[in-house]
Amino acid sequence: MNFLDERILNYSIDKSSCPSKHCDDLELFTKENHPLHRMLCGKLEASLLKFLIHLSGANSVLELGTFTGYSALAMAEALPIDGRVTTIDKNKKINEISSKFWKESKDGEKIRALFGDGLEVLETLDEEFDLIFIDADKRNYKAYFDKCLSLLSKSGFIVVDNVLWSGRVVEEIGKELEQDKSTEYLVEFNNYISSRDDLVKTLLPIRDGIYLIKRDSNA
Question: At what angle do helices 181-195 and 141-149 cross, to 10 degrees?
Fold first, then answer.
């Protein structure tokens, strides 16, 4: 998932504003106790998310895919005192981990956790969000994006994670690696976003690939 030399990655993290010790503790706990700990977004990506919140002045965040709550807490730390992160996950049991660590941080009070099928939960929301972070099942990325676009504030933007899928989305690399259905879904999603002239987008090779997307006000 990391395309940089580990030494360069660690240097970048060391020189960046990273999440708090509360996030570090949650990251360590996840790595030591959850078999899918690689699903964590990681320090550098969390630093980028926090920077984007500060840069944009975002006050409301929507997240699809809570996992153990690391990214939700990192983003909550960057929000003003009246800001809120609404995070959605179908796995209610894993909330036992996230809620424990959120309660240990004053910023955890800014987080609202919702549970259920992502698309169904999205249909129940009637508010706008300044930043939407999509990091859930890859099969529904396009459907998530289309629905989230209707929930985006006028100046808001969407961040989509895992869009490089360890390089598998690149045809030449994909032929050398074990394929899965997620690769197909992500190739389709990336092509869909790239083809839309009404969007401004940048795909960054950070962590496992991050797509930054917003409406083009000039379109």
Answer: 30
